[in-house]
Amino acid sequence: MAEVPKRIIEQTSDGYREDNVPREIKEVILERLSLSDRIRMRIVCKYWGAIALQKHIPITPQIPWLTIPHSSNSKELSFLDMSAGKIQKLKLPRRLQGMVCCGSSKGWLFMAKNCPSLLSHKLANTIPRLEHVLFQWPTPESDIFMFNPISGEVHQLPSLFTIPCYQQFLEEEGKEHSVSCFISRIQLSSSDVSECIVAAAFDDDDPDSTMVAICRPGNKQWSNFTAKTQDKNFKFTEFLFNKRTVYAISSVQHMESYTLELGGYEVNLKLIPDLHIEAEDVAPVIRLMTNDFVLVSNPFSYLYLVESTRGELLLIKRLYDQLESPSLLYMKTTSFYVFKMDPNTGRWQRLYDIDDEVLFISRGGSLSLSAKDFVGVEGNCIYFTEDIDYCEHQCLIVSRECGVFCLRDQQIKRSFPSFNLPILSRMCWFTPSL
């Protein structure tokens, strides 16, 4: 056996050290490791750990991690790393402990603090007051942050109380006030914090419009969308934020474009006509009815917008069966349709095959990859998560609504771990980055 040069590896009283390995060699080695290996390298050896997660060293292409639901008192986040076949656990900074995950976008997680009902908060803080004195109840904090669990970087976003409909949401009686139920969608225009804009859609319980607001990290308040060209309400069912353009599925008849302002910044808004499929494809059908249970096929669907690896705008329609009884509500995923948008007309063309594309969809954030870039990943598939908000249903049931849909044979494989419902944190696909 060849002798290991002493100048490369030296033995000390507390073990081995490799601090004499030239930095250039270390960086070449790190470039060939997966991000999971680099995280472990940081833990195992302090000398390698000093450079293992530095941003200037490129990382190999990474399959998204699946965020696993966590309780509000958790001090760490857990992720399913499919490439390594392991659960990755990363610590939460102290200031984020007690918060829940509301979504993911471009390598960042959105963490927010659950607020109690304002009605119960007021009762808990009741103090004597004079009738003629104007009294304002103390308002609970409502923090929301951008968080990179790999680098540990944290950036605060404006309080949700600067969203007009948030206080109304908290004042509704008989509603579980999970912040993940209030934030319908939240996305970044860019992964670069210095130039990114955050866009979010909020549940305002208005059937005619959707509250959509934008901000930048460090801003004091959210800014509502206001169109320069025409004053009208927009009802968004889904949107995709890419660079400075928001693509939104709406009830318009034709594709419309607007320019939106945010403190001197302009964002393009493109409204795309809502998707219409033949009635026989999606019409609700009652399959089973007994004294206690009703099973309905296609009672409703979810829409997801994803940009393909080729730059095409794809829309995925997710269909459900609904099982309901006086004490139970469960939505079972049954099928998916995929459509491609004509960029000139906004019309949708159904696709029965997406070649080597792999789509990862969730209400917390969606993305696409090419199966050619990863070993052991099958193309022409859709990876999906549990996306139904069971906020108002307190019965404890087990969900199996995470899986893989194959367009080739129209089959669903439910190969992911099951978990208990309802959940307060949102499941989403997280792309680890430095």
Task: Explain how this protein is built.
The protein is 11% helix and 38% strand. The model is unreliable at 1-16 and 118-140 (pLDDT under 50). The chain is built from seven helices and 30 strands. The protein is mostly beta strands. The strands form eight sheets. A five-stranded antiparallel β-sheet has the order 18-19-20-21-22, with no helix packed on it. A five-stranded mixed β-sheet has the order 24-23-25-27-28, with no helix packed on it. Strands 5-4-3-30 form a four-stranded antiparallel β-sheet, with no helix packed on it.
Helix content: 10-25%
Class per helix and strand makeup: mainly beta
The overall pLDDT, averaged over residues, is: 77
Strand order of the largest sheet: 18-19-20-21-22
Query: What Rg is obtained from the alpha carbons, in whole angstroms?
Result: 24 Å
Instruction: Give the number of DSSP strands.
Output: 30
Q: Strand-residue fraction?
A: 35-45%
User: What distance separates the N and C termini?
Assistant: 39 Å
How many helices? The count is 7
Report the uncertain regions: 1-16, 118-140
Q: Which term fits the overall shape?
A: globular
